[in-house]
Each structure stands twice: as structure tokens, then as C-alpha cells.
Amino acid sequence: MKIGIVCYPTFGGSGVVATELGIALAKEGHQVHFITYRQPTRLDFFSENLFYHEVDIKSYPLFEHAPYELALASKMVNVVEFEGLDLLHVHYAIPHASAAYMAKQILKSQGIEIPVVTTLHGTDITLVGKDPSYAPVVTFSINESDGVTAVSEDLKKSTYEHFDIKKEIEVIPNFIDLDRFKKQKKEHFKRAICPNDEKLLVHTSNFRKVKRVEDVIKVFYEVRKVVPSKLLLVGDGPERDRMERICRELGTCEDTRFLGKLDAVEEVLSVADLFLIPSEKESFGLAALEAMACEVPVLSSNAGGIPELNIDGETGFACEVGDIEDMTAKALHILSDENLDAFKKRALARAKEFDVSNILPRYENFYKKTIEKTLTVSK
Ligand code: GMT
What we know:
Layout: E1 2-6, H1 13-27, E2 31-36, E3 50-54, H2 68-83, E4 87-91, H3 93-109, E5 116-120, H4 123-126, H5 135-144, E6 147-150, H6 153-162, E7 169-171, H7 187-193, E8 199-204, H8 213-226, E9 229-234, H9 240-250, E10 256-260, H10 265-269, E11 274-277, H11 286-293, E12 298-301, H12 306-309, E13 316-319, H13 324-335, H14 340-352, H15 356-378
Parallel strand pairs: 1-2, 1-4, 2-3, 4-5, 5-6, 6-7, 8-9, 8-11, 9-10, 11-12, 12-13
Helix pairs in contact: 2-3, 3-5, 8-9, 8-13, 11-14
The protein binds ligand GMT.
């Protein structure tokens, strides 16, 4: 198949999933065309089946905000036409699904029928999408997509709850490439961070408010009173400064390192003992899956779709959002010498269920089904 993938090219869940999906499809022999405004972060190598088309956003003194959606729709039309794509797969509803609708209508006027699959990732529904400033467009463009997928059962449920959706939504969970995300031998690194064999706690995120990084620091503050430990915070974002201030106030700075954005996050995860993801909302929790693939148990909140991944009491624990006391008790339970290895093994076993080789065929089948259905209806 010739597939166009539209996504955000940045660090962060939806863009990473879209890029990894494109890479996996290309390895299977499909031709994949990425359409976005910057080279996606993980698309930093050559493959004969991978193509990148940059959206040109022309500015003009009249525009206070350059109309990205129009430039994107025009680029989609252009790529579908000239590359002869079979399908467009857009990740994140805003503004990708509505731009795809526009592109589809333009192409239809030229006698070209292009099936559109929209994948919902989370905040496009649970946070931004349901805001009245976007909701009518999000509802319309989901209903007008030829196929819709969501990354968890919980996200599917929220979508039906918040929007008037007539379309069937198929759940296809996120996935992981276990060849890349696996525990690596990085003992020198562990010794450098934990010279006295302290336990290592890790959090990775985009430091947005919804991630509740403050809870990570508070749990660490309590855990450190009982078990000698260190904390690594990977990523960057709007909450970073405030988090550094909280560390100073709590006096945990000497045992905490802010590493900023890292490409090779699997190297840090390889030496971690516990991964923390206490988010307020989380449709899936790809960062937790990456940790589990590196044999790291997960202490999470029970928000959204996280409990579908992190099995409470098995691969870690899923606590009430903001319950620092419970999170601390559960963290100490996992970190105890008699429990830690068993949690690590179960975390890896669970991650294997989400290996790309299990999930990719589900996307391929969904594409085939959507193409057949769309072309039959248009005849
Ligand atoms: O979590 C974020 O802020 C980034 C966001 C995104 O759209 O890039 O992540 C969402 O999509 C990921 C991939 O499907 C999911 O793993 C995340 O759980 C989801 N984030 C939220 O729902 C908050």
C-alpha cells in the first residue's frame, strides 16, 4: 500500500506512535509518505520506502496566525495526487482530521477517492477537543472519517461520551519496538548516578500540567526518607521551572537530576528500578510501555487508559490521581528486595503483548477494510 501519514513531528506520544508506525509499515514493504511541518523526531535515517513532505506555511502581514490547516490540506491534495496514495492516516484530530476532510473533498472534485483513517490519541478528545472552541469541528471530522481508531478502550468511551459520534471506533492500542526498547547493559551509567547502590526512580514526559510531575517529586521525597534513592526526570516543558523550584523547597535537589529531552531514553530506562506516571489524564501512557519494555515496573495513576496497560498489583500499581500516601506505600512495596525482580519480570512480559509485530497487522487489516468499504460506497 501507499500510505500518507499526517502527524505532529515533535517529541510526545502521538507523533512518536505515528512515526514508529510509518517505520514499521515501511519495513513490511509499504510505501509511507509523512506529511507534516518538520522532519519527525525519530525519522532520522534513510529508507527506500520512507518519504517526507514538508508543509509550507506561507505567512502574510494580514495573518495574525498563519493558516496551517489550509497549507496542510493543500499538501495532502498534492501528495495524494502525485504519489498516488491509497490511504491517508491522520494522527490527532486537531487540525489533522478536519484538514483531511477538506483534502478529501478537493480530491473528490477531481475524481479521486481517498480513504481517510483518523487515530485519536487522547488530549485531542479529553482536553483540547471537547473545548467548545473546537468541539463542533472535531465531531464533524471524526464522523466524516472513513475509519476511526482510538488507542485505548477508555479513550473510545470518552469519545462517545463527549461527542455525538455516529462512527464505529476501533481500539488499536499503542505498540513498542522491543528490538529498540530493551534493557541494555549500562552498569557504568547506573554506578555514576547511584554510587551507593541507591534505587533509581525515573519519570519521562513533556512536563505539561496534566502529567502532575509535582506528584513524582512528592512521592520521591517520601520514598527517599525510607529507601536510599535517586530521581531522574527526563523531558522538558512548561512545568519544568516550577518543578525545579519544588525540588529546591523540598531539599531533594542533590538526589534529583533534570536531564531535559533525550533521544536515547531507553538507556536511562535500562538502569531504572521504578517508573512514575501519576497523570491526571492519560489515554494510553506510551512512556510507561517504553519503561516496561526495559523491565521497569510502573507506579501510575488510574487515569484514563493507563490501567489497561499497567496491571494493578502485577506490573506495578495504578493509584487514585494525587494520592501521594498510597503511591508512596506502593512504591516502597515494589522497591523492596523481595518484590522488585518479580515486578520487573511481569512488566516485561506485559510489554511483549504490545510488540509492534502483534499490533501492526491490526492497522494493516484496518486499512484494507477501510479502503474496500470507501471504494465500494463511492462506486
Ligand atoms: O501526553 C501528551 O501530552 C502527548 C499526547 C500526544 O498527543 O502526543 O499523548 C497522547 O497520545 C499518546 C500516544 O497515543 C498516549 O500514549 C498518551 O497517553 C496521550 N496523552 C494523554 O492522553 C494525556
